[in-house]
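#random but structural
TW: two for the price of one
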Amino acid sequence: MKKTLLLVIRWVVGLLFIFSGLVKVNDPLGLSYKMQEFFEVWGWHFLNDYTLAFSIIMNVFEVLAGVAVILGWRMRLFSWLLLLLIIFFTFLTGYALFSGRIKTCGCFGDCLPLTPAQSFGKDIFLLLLILVLFFSASSIKQSLGSKAASGILLVCIVASAGLQIYVLKYLPFVDCLPYKKGNDLLAQMKTPAGAVPDSFSISFTYQKSGKTIEFDQNHFPDDFDSTYTYIGRKDKLVKKGNGLEAKITDFSLQTLNGADTTNAVLSTPGYYLMAFIKDFQQVGRWMENFQSVAATAKEKQVPLIIVTADAESATKLFSSFTILKCDATVIKTASRTVPGFFIMKGPKVLEKQSYASASSINQFIKNLP
């Protein structure tokens, strides 16, 4: 009975870790951005440059650990590693739940978003199962020979690392973002019927004449002027909404003069091409492909719009194209590669490709009616 129970627990824990790892292998940048969100909240900005490496390593380890547990391979070692990992995950999801400063933990990526409460509950459940494995590790026997098990685990490492390298260049295999192919961006920006937003009270802290003064948004001092020095603000949840909100809440396109042109662009009746370029740090890597796509678009008379967070660099490099400004975080969400190409008709995304798939983009443009 005990052996059967341990076998079931091993499979449950193993499959959950494999599933969690593979979902994030599909989009390592998504986990990287989630790590940056935690680091920003904690003030650990110095780690932002390493989050992608952390993401890739963590995803490989989750898959590896899941397979190792199912095989019963070196259970003493992996029971320790899993216990430390799940304690860490439980801390993160607990922080997201009880602090209210992180909306989702990113446990299963964007394809299966969980609320902080669901994530925390999942980790508590896993913690209990892993504790059982931890205290029973010495009685768990390896199900395959050492060479066969080592070979399977090596394949898992190579495959999960290789898949991540591929999607970083060519986009995720499964796009779970609201900007995916086939979506109507204007429809994604609409608030669902019956949506009730969260209600907050905002209190401000200022300093004047050496004294600290606090007040809410409805009770500013009568003498409020430039002599008040801003210290900070606190947002307190007064009433929880029903969680319904638009899938896209922050997409905004602006001209170089700062005028909002989002609706005008997305209401364009014909075909057009948007190139999302967050920055221009590695222009040499993609410029040839970009020029190839631009030439095809020009030949087919499909307007090319550059959407960027670095308008100054864009105007120096691409003076002959329409350039629109967009927030860097929005661009990172819309397109996981720099640049990423959206072939549009009105608000609908007809095709979405990485710069590395220039030949596919060119063929799609050529086939447009």
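TW: number two ↓
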Amino acid sequence: METRGLKQSDLAEIIPQSNLSSILAGKRKISATLAGKLAKFFDINPAVFVPT
């Protein structure tokens, strides 16, 4: 997000801001469905969002 100059509100159509805040704080994991949505939004591979 920082690299692209995005704010949490820029992702509001994909994920509720409260969920995004929890994810960014490390309190919530990214689901496979959300990884797909984020990958489409950022035009990258969904594996980027799946921890190894």
